[in-house]
Write a structure and sequence with these properties.
By secondary structure, this protein is of the alpha/beta class. The protein has one domain: 3-Layer(aba) Sandwich (Rossmann fold). Helices cover 32% and strands 34% of the residues. The strands form two sheets. A five-stranded mixed sheet has the order 5-2-6-7-8, covered by helices on one side. A three-stranded mixed sheet has the order 1-4-3, covered by helices on one side. A hairpin with a 3-residue loop joins strand 6 and strand 7. The model has no long low-confidence stretch (mean pLDDT 89).
Length: 190
Amino acid sequence: MPRLTTVAPALLLWAIVAACASPASRFYTLSGAASSPAMAPGPSVVVGPVSLPALVDRPQIVVHSGENEVRLDEFNRWASPLHDNIASVIASNLAHQLASARVWPYAQAPLPSADYRVLIDVQRFESTLGQEVLVDILWTVRPASGGTPKTGRSLVREPTAGAGFDPLVAAHSRALARVSADIAAAIRAP
């Protein structure tokens, strides 16, 4: 009988620890265009700062689960602050689309002033698992020469290519590539 009283608390402790164990967190990052090996010293561009709605300005990936319901996923998170990741991705995409080796996110810009400054105001950054993502971004391209700023709005819906967070993040990356194309066209326009 003394053996059972020793084993029972150990089993109970093991059951409590097993019940409290949580799944491992997974961390995600958006991806931009791969750098082209033949980059020219094109226009210098600084991307940022990026403003985000408070709803998505957090480490957890926010998923829409109904018309008026969202879920903060504690175990699927952004690897870095989302506003920094968006600035980096748009900068990478612009470098590729403008064939310029002189495009940086705001936080990493080595120049005090660049030929262009791109301000990003994210209105919506929505994620629906297994369906689509939606980004709605207001952007402004300000030339350093004092010319007239160009403004635009890019509203992009991008289907996910499957269920889960990997396809969801990939869809956001594709949506930001389309936003970047709109910004690149504004920079190239006379």
